[in-house]
Amino acid sequence: MIDALLELFGTFYQAGNFLQAERIACRILEAIPDDLVSLQFLGLVYYRTGRREEAIEAFNTAACRGLDRDSHLHVDSRLRASAQCLRAARVPGSTVAAAWYDLGVVLFRLRRYQQAISAFQSALAGRPDFRAAQRAIARVSASSWRQRSPVANRKLTAAGRCLTADPLPCQGRNAAQPSGLGRAAFATP
Length: 189
Hints:
Layout: H1 2-15, H2 18-31, H3 36-48, H4 52-70, H5 81-89, H6 97-109, H7 113-126, H8 131-148, H9 150-154, H10 158-164, H11 183-186
């Protein structure tokens, strides 16, 4: 059932039907309140529909819940429904690979580097040949290092600065248009 819902989310998301994708993510969260996958995808939909504050709140909640989960080591994570969601969202050939990639781009733009890398890795789990996700991991890792190194940060090129700038609001974009959240920003020349 979880697999089918996530595939349905991916289908709606790829089609640009963000209203239906949001409904699916909310339904999963109703059934599995501690599910980080649908919470992050809900944040992605919020971001894509111009609700940046709601998106940031969803990403913050996901990050906090992820930390809380690590402190509960006595619970077998294989038994959690949320763990099943993560496995289902990373299955090879999944329709949510593009959503994972877009989520990584959004998280990168918000300077949430570790979350971005995790999202790109999930995109690769769904599509091992996803070259844009492979390049994105390298770019995020390099950018994360530059952010921590003041000397390297001063050496950022204009192109590098452009990648870390806040994105333009998503409002006004054609909802039926493919995600295109800056895929060119991660492409190599």
